[in-house]
Specification:
Pfam families: DUF3142 (PF11340). This is DUF3142 domain-containing protein. Keywords: Signal. Strand 13 and strand 14 form a beta hairpin. The strands form 5 sheets. Strands 1-2-4-5-6-7-8-12 form an 8-stranded parallel beta barrel. The chain has 2 domains: 277 residues, TIM Barrel (Alpha-Beta Barrel), CATH 3.20.20.80; 87 residues, Sandwich (Immunoglobulin-like). The N and C termini lie far apart (74 Å). It is of the alpha/beta class.
């Protein structure tokens, strides 16, 4: 007759099995898929190259198809249909409705949506779903839900919408989120520009709250770009500069930049402990080598795939004689945040800053101060000023 196990053995075995099962689950956790927005109005060769070069790491492309301004006037996008048709997975056709539009004509929106669907399909684009982007006021959510219901009834494809954290305070959000098949929570550039483009703590709190409100799959939209925002004395945004410089300097403006390291950490946090129902990430927007305010493609790829980021900034004095140019160089493999302060120590009679830096002096001596946030792409350099020094090797140090 076999000897019975001690009373404590069975619970111990059960605990060991549970621990092994949990460890296996952690090892086998499915990575959150990366989607991306293609929001550019101009389909340049640079954009087409970036699309093809990133198709292996992007699960689904969300492509702007048409947009309606605050007056109800429509503008259709003109994408490279051959490039879209060549993608390995179906794309999402996005309709953007200006959030300032007080009145939405459901029939006009429905007609435009189906016209775009017909044109894209005729061009060979495999459209897998439709997305509505309408950043309306919270008071409009009830009417928005009614509009979505009418659109949903005419579609043979899944419907998704974007959502704002400010909607979390509304009881109408539950009614709204019950209509589409999925939703995308935007956690960047949604509050006062003075608060920055992205705050990881605030974004995490919004994501947790949102997970408790929706019963359907949802994604979170994350930034991979920078933008310049100008506002008036009352704090109202009057202009936004995105892919290319277009605004003259104003007394009230700020350069807002999504820092790759911060977003990489946030992505890892979501991957390790995803909120309930989180189905993936959607990055705004696909960078190109001509997009001056987006991450470099190398940095974007590293963040999306969880690879280490290794920026490496250095300061170089170029030229001969007592007056030399001050160069900021990134010798690393990823975008580097521009330093906020560059201290100048030594026998220097004069200096000045350029390209976003200004010369200042305090009790510790001369220093260059960054006028706005920014990134320096890998293997590039920027001339940020000049020095006239008697020292052959003045000491230069920088701080974030």
């Amino acid at each position: 007759m076999p000897r019975p196990y001690p009373l404590c053995a069975l619970p111990l075995c059960a605990l060991l099995l549970l621990a092994l099962s949990l460890a296996a689950c952690r090892r086998e956790a499915t990575p959150l898929p990366n989607d991306a927005y293609v929001w550019q109005r101009a389909w340049t060769p640079s954009l087409v190259r970036a699309l093809g070069a990133s198709d292996d790491i992007v699960s689904t492309w969300h492509v702007l198809g048409a947009e309606m301004d605050a007056t109800g006037r429509w503008t259709d996008s003109a994408p490279d249909y051959a490039a879209l048709a060549a993608l390995r997975r179906p794309v999402v056709l996005v309709l953007r409705l200006d959030g300032r539009a007080d009145r939405l004509e459901a029939d006009a929106i429905r007609r435009r949506l189906h016209e775009r669907l017909k044109a894209w399909r005729a061009a060979g684009v495999h459209v897998g779903s439709v997305e509505i982007d309408y950043d309306c006021a919270t008071s409009r959510l009830h009417d928005y839900a009614a509009l979505l219901g009418r659109l949903r009834a005419t579609l043979d494809l899944p419907l998704a919408i974007t959502a704002l954290p400010t909607w979390l305070q509304s009881p109408d959000l539950d009614t709204l989120l019950a209509v589409p098949d999925s939703s995308i929570l935007q956690v960047h550039a949604v509050l006062d520009p003075a608060l920055g483009l992205f705050n990881p703590s605030r974004a995490a709190a919004w994501a947790d709250d949102y997970a408790r409100r929706t019963r359907r799959p949802w994604r979170v939209a994350l930034p991979s770009y920078g933008t310049r925002v100008a506002w008036d004395d009352a704090g109202r945004i009057i202009a936004v500069e995105s892919e290319r410089p277009s605004l003259a300097p104003t007394p009230r403006d700020a350069e807002l930049v999504a820092q790759p390291g911060i977003l990489a950490d946030f992505r890892a946090r979501l991957q390790e402990r995803p909120p309930a129902g989180l189905a993936g990430l959607v990055w705004f927007r696909l960078p190109t080598d001509q997009d001056q305010r987006a991450w470099s493609l190398a940095t974007w790829r590293a963040v999306l795939t969880g690879q280490p980021l290794r920026p490496e900034l250095a300061l170089i004095l170029a030229g001969t004689g007592s007056t030399r140019d001050l160069l900021l160089v990134n010798r690393g493999n990823s975008d580097a945040a521009l330093p906020g302060t560059i201290r100048i120590a030594g026998d220097c009679a004069a200096a000045d800053g350029i390209n976003g830096y200004a010369l200042e002096r305090d009790s510790d001596g001369l220093y260059l101060r960054s006028l706005r946030e920014g990134l320096l792409r890998p293997h590039l350099q920027r001339n940020i000023g000049w020095l006239r020094c008697n020292d052959a090797h003045p000491r230069l140090t920088f701080q974030p």
